Amino acid sequence: MLFSFFLVSIPIVLAQQHNAEPTVDGSCDDGWQSFPNVTDATAYPNWIIDEELGAYMPVYQTTGLNASEVTRAVIILHGKERTCWTDWNAANNALYNATYDDSTIERDEISILSPCFFDEDDLEAGAAQDGQLLWGKRTWMSGHRNVAPDSISDFSSFDVLDALVDYYMNTTLYPNLKVVVVAGHSAGGQMSQRYAALRISTENDDQLHFWIANPASLLWLTSDRPVPNDDCKGFDRYKYGLASKYPAYATANARVLGREGIIERYNGRTLNYAWGLKDNGDGDTRCQAMTQGSTHLKRGKNFVSMLEDMGGIPNLTTIDWVPKVRHDTEKMMASDAGVDKLFRYMGNSTDA
Ligand SMILES: *[C@@H]1O[C@H](CO)[C@@H](O)[C@H](O)[C@H]1NC(C)=O
Ligand SMILES: *[C@@H]1O[C@H](CO)[C@@H](O)[C@H](O)[C@H]1NC(C)=O
Ligand SMILES: *[C@@H]1O[C@H](CO)[C@@H](O)[C@H](O)[C@H]1NC(C)=O
Ligand SMILES: *[C@@H]1O[C@H](CO)[C@@H](O)[C@H](O)[C@H]1NC(C)=O
Ligand SMILES: *[C@@H]1O[C@H](CO)[C@@H](O)[C@H](O)[C@H]1NC(C)=O
Ligand SMILES: *[C@@H]1O[C@H](CO)[C@@H](O)[C@H](O)[C@H]1NC(C)=O
């Protein structure tokens, strides 16, 4: 009796899975030397982005899922280092945290995909291959055009995101899909914010969420700045502002909508911002970024004040201030707020 009572009362502590980050030789400046395998992911060096154009690029995607059971897709955008394997792995580890803490979140229902915006140094060094879409070292994050291959011109990194969103929104492939999250931390957060601003709407946009975490700078909505500097040229030009210099992806659309139209569309989207309350780094020290505030966190606080001054936080916007976290991708993703917005939040768009 006593013995069996003792047995059942011992809590069974299952270790929580956490996969180590793959190591890759090379560097962001000199190029990465390989496109590594990642636990739980399938590495696709040549994922088709546009069949007609023959456009393809490397991505990681959760392996072994039954597409009919997938209800949620999370498209993870890497940071400025272009280590897409690290960001994919961080999101996958955050999903382990999520399922450990909340049994309603199911690994079998969530597909994580991370595209790799490699550059010509990565081609030289070995991670990228001839024929794949390649980008400038920093221009991928603001929707600018590809730099290779020669057979494909004027292909925006936002065209890539459009193709990945369309892929998941295809109900023949994913009949039970409810939400697609385009998510990024740091430079990835910059990309998701600017994509949210410039993406050309489709009928499924109410199912689309944007997770914007700790961006080094933002696409500011108003033409004034919290830390004005008249000597700073182009502080309101794209990618810092909406006055001019849009990437080709958006020029025609921006002409039709104008600044007000772009802002209205942007604020009508499901935007989930997140800032680490200890993210006191400056990230981008150019004067255009400094007019937004001197650190990631201050820029975030100033951006939120701007939204309040413009008429209040938009209905479909959420803002998470994440305690104790610095500029750390995995900790932002694994935080309560990160887990919620990446893997659980359904939004409250009434059309959904
Ligand atoms: C990844 O795994 C595949 C299949 O097991 C193998 O052929 C390939 O060489 C591996 N790639 C790397 C970079 O280790
Ligand atoms: C995939 O899931 C669907 C729906 O649950 C099920 O009917 C189907 O048999 C599954 N396919 C495979 C290959 O397991
Ligand atoms: C949706 O996916 C199916 C199956 O892969 C494919 O045949 C079809 O062309 C896709 N539809 C669109 C609009 O891309
Ligand atoms: C949207 O959802 C959040 C969280 O569920 C809730 O706090 C907020 O009030 C909702 N906003 C509107 C406008 O319904
Ligand atoms: C936001 O939500 C409030 C309360 O639900 C509603 O009255 C208002 O019209 C909404 N605003 C917009 C811009 O949808
Ligand atoms: C996530 O899980 C790992 C592995 O168990 C753990 O070390 C980490 O503290 C967890 N993170 C959070 C925010 O709970």
Summarize the structure.
The chain is of the alpha/beta class and 352 residues long. It has helices at 2-9, 84-101, 120-125, 157-169, 187-198, 248-267, 287-290, 296-309, 329-334, 336-344, and strands spanning 26-27, 31-32, 41-50, 55-62, 72-77, 110-115, 179-185, 208-213, 270-276, 317-322. It has an 8-stranded mixed beta sheet with strand order 3-4-6-5-7-8-9-10, sandwiched between helices. A two-stranded antiparallel sheet has the order 1-2.
**Average pLDDT number:** 95
Count of individual helical segments = 10
Principal-axis shape equals globular
Distance between the first and last residues' Cα: 55 Å
Largest sheet data: 8 strands, mixed
User: H/E element string?
Assistant: HEEEEEHEHHEHEHEHHEHH
Bound molecules: 2-acetamido-2-deoxy-beta-D-glucopyranose
Strand order of the largest sheet: 3-4-6-5-7-8-9-10
CATH fold description: Rossmann fold
Please supply descriptive tags for the structure shown above:
352 residues, alpha/beta, Rossmann fold, eight-stranded mixed β-sheet, two-stranded antiparallel ribbon, 10 helices, 10 strands, 17% strand, globular, binds 2-acetamido-2-deoxy-beta-D-glucopyranose, AB_hydrolase_fold, signal
Descriptive notes:
- The protein has 352 residues and is α/β, with parallel strands linked by helices.
- The chain is 31% helix and 17% strand.
- The chain contains ten helices and ten strands.
- It has an eight-stranded mixed beta sheet with strand order 3-4-6-5-7-8-9-10, sandwiched between helices.
- A hairpin with a 4-residue loop joins strand 3 (41-50) and strand 4.
- The radius of gyration is 21 Å and the shape is globular.
- The mean pLDDT is 95.
- It binds 2-acetamido-2-deoxy-beta-D-glucopyranose (6 copies).
- One 2-acetamido-2-deoxy-beta-D-glucopyranose is lined by residues 315, 348.
